[in-house]
User: What shape does this take?
Amino acid sequence: GGQIAGCLIGVILIGAAFIALGLFISSLTENQLSAAVITVASIAVMVLAGAKSLTKCKVTEFLSKDKRFM
Assistant: This one.
């Protein structure tokens, strides 16, 4: 029960963080397509920075969504 609820809350919070990132990038640009591309690229960088093989570097640890949000 508690583990499922915790995972659900985690998914909701990481989704909210990704949406907030998209809204922030969208507020910086006038073009919707460029905002979408930059948002997807930013999320991909955070996901890839959390990969096990890349976390040996302190910079990728800092950028990693796993280290920041979980």
